[in-house]
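Weekend entry, working from home. Most of the wet-lab plans are on hold until the incubator is repaired, so I used the time to fold the two sequences that have been sitting in the queue since the last round of cloning. Logging both here for the record. First:
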Amino acid sequence: MAAPETQGNPELDALDRKLLAALQADGRASHVDLAARVHLSAPQCWRRVRALEARGAIRGYAAQVPPQALGLGVVAYVGLNVAGPHFDRAREIEREIRAFEQILECHAVSGEHDYLLKVVAPDLKRLSQFLTDRLMQVRGVDDVRSMICLEEIKPAAPLPIDLG
């Protein structure tokens, strides 16, 4: 089930936004710590966090592990196109893409490609093998173009809470 949209959502008040900012900064903070940061009681804080989770404003909590810590020395962005006659299988292709562990992100995009993928691999040879032997074997995938990341300049960052 897709999470409800929260952009411009009047249901997100100033306290909700403060909680989201605090949780993005430290997802392991206790409700007591969060409550102190946003000036609420711990029970009120707990109820608000649960409500944010229920409304889909919080997807989940996870540790941020750098790819290198797991021996994944290559990060690539891959533009993927679907062959015209196979556009009727787009949702099936997306399901197959979701199943590949090497693909961290997949976005439907406008422009030169139909999808933009973020892919990890231990090395260039294994990236090539994945692209050739697995991804390009998905029925309907027509064209795959990869860009190798040379250096991470800015890692994934918290979302701006008050941008808008």
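Second, folded right after the first finished:
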Amino acid sequence: MRTTLKIFAALAACALGAAHAQDIPAKAEGVTRIGIVQPKVSMAGADSAQSAEAVRNILAGYLQGPTIEVALLGSRLPSQYLIEARQADCDFVLATTLTHRSGSEANTGRSVLGALSNYTPYVPGADYAKTALATAVLQSAQDFAANVRARDDMQLDVKLDSVGGRQPLLEKSTKRKARSDGEDLLTPLAEGAAEAVGAAIAAP
């Protein structure tokens, strides 16, 4: 668990560099910009905006690098987030769905990230919000792991579109099953998704 928290602390720091689409500067030459739609996060039939934003910042932390920039898109509908992505000068749009399923009836109805009642969204340029987000993303690692029980499974569905393209560049679904209580399922899922996205972007 301690290793996982260190990983998420680093990801939180990286994610602070991601800007919302309406606030990002002009794209530098040679840089690829990916617009990330707020993920759909489901647990026992319910979605959580708080957990979705935490998952998005984790993905942003993995994707962001010297040649890749990340923009956090506000639109939810495909027709709208593609327009927003064009306005933000994005090359690609990443849409994801994270589903956490209970492995036993006794665990049905657990709420993922229910502890994040004081979650504060990132506001570019606001130091207090950056600190709050770093704390929230770090807490999310603890909450995700704390809500995992043996035999639970977590699935991450990824869809990557090229802005202006007609067909998805990448569609990938990955699932992991917990072997023990408190197992970190999200980190390898997010890392694998980022690697797949990077490979799809780099492909000729």
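Plan for Monday: verify the second prediction. The longest strand covers residues 92-101.
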